[in-house]
Amino acid sequence: MRSFDYSRATAVGEAVATVAADPAAAFLAGGTTQVDLMKDGVLAPARLVDITRLPLRYVHHGQDAVHVGALTSMEELAADPVVAQRLPVMREALLLGASVQLRNMATMGGNLLQRTRCRYFRDLTCPCNKREPGTGCAALQGVHRMHAVLGTSEHCIATHASDVAVALVALDAVVHVQGPEGERAIPLTDFYLLPREEPNRENVLRHGELITSIEVPLLPANARSVYLKVRDRTSYEFALSSAAVALVVRDGVIREARVGLGGVATVPWRAGGAEDVLRGARAGAEVFQSAAQAAVQGAIPHRDNAFKIELAKRTVVRALQTVSDKAS
Ligand code: SF4
What we know:
Elements: E1 5-8, H1 12-20, E2 25-28, H2 34-39, E3 47-50, E4 59-61, E5 65-69, H3 74-78, H4 81-86, H5 88-97, H6 100-105, H7 108-112, H8 164-170, E6 174-179, E7 182-187, H9 188-191, E8 210-217, E9 224-230, E10 241-250, E11 253-262, E12 269-270, H10 272-278, H11 285-295, H12 307-327
Parallel strand pairs: 1-3, 2-3
Antiparallel strand pairs: 4-5, 5-8, 6-7, 6-8, 9-10, 10-11, 11-12
Helix pairs in contact: 5-8, 10-11, 11-12
The chain binds iron/sulfur cluster.
Iron/sulfur cluster is lined by residues 116, 118, 120-121, 128-130, 137-139, 156-158, 199.
């Protein structure tokens, strides 16, 4: 690991100003991915600004939303009673997202910013446009069974690793940030960038901007939701495919639908086409199949991961069936 300067911030403004003033500086929170990447030489910030003492660790309950401080741990959020009651899809995604040790350490802000698990990204001997723009993508011809089929480009096919971000995208969460030019609120659906010419740019944050909180609108009281994660083994593993689904069903008709996909896309994927199929339709196997087909519209397989398209469809169908059974 390369040596770096370290300081601990006592106020949000101070942390933002320190990082903004130095292009080689970065924030440090839970560090569960960042420190690993520094040890591997993938990241080499010249200065780390420790933000763990900032007053950004809370879950506030509003009338229509929960407001989650960016330093709240995954475990703290999963243990919140309002989250358990009104946002079960998010709670399930949190619990399935990491071991309890990691959930206690990892922060919600850091979770949204976690880097891909693509093995070539972490291997300094391999070309990787995300690590070193313009060098190529080793995964295209390499081992890419775990890689994405949605939102890919010729520059990068790495999946986004977060589970809870998939639920948050489906829930219309909003990210609040503070930067050197002030505060702004960014819908999570606009937060992530597809890997076009610059796969190293993964989100719309500017240098020095800090996520301060996440606003998560509550689901309607009569909604039912689930996070279904399919993986090679039942723990300590990333998703091959996942679906975050919420439905409001009344008199057998779907009044509201949310569908997010994980494990198959380069960003947490909102499946708006599937939602359009579901909204106003009578709940049942046929419409669930149509919605699943719409969810993977535009998917592009590579040599080893074509199975993910069918797997994603089956994941969506099963999640919809599970929610529909709960609603009836
Ligand atoms: Fe790098 Fe993306 Fe290619 Fe993986 S898929 S090697 S992260 S460019």
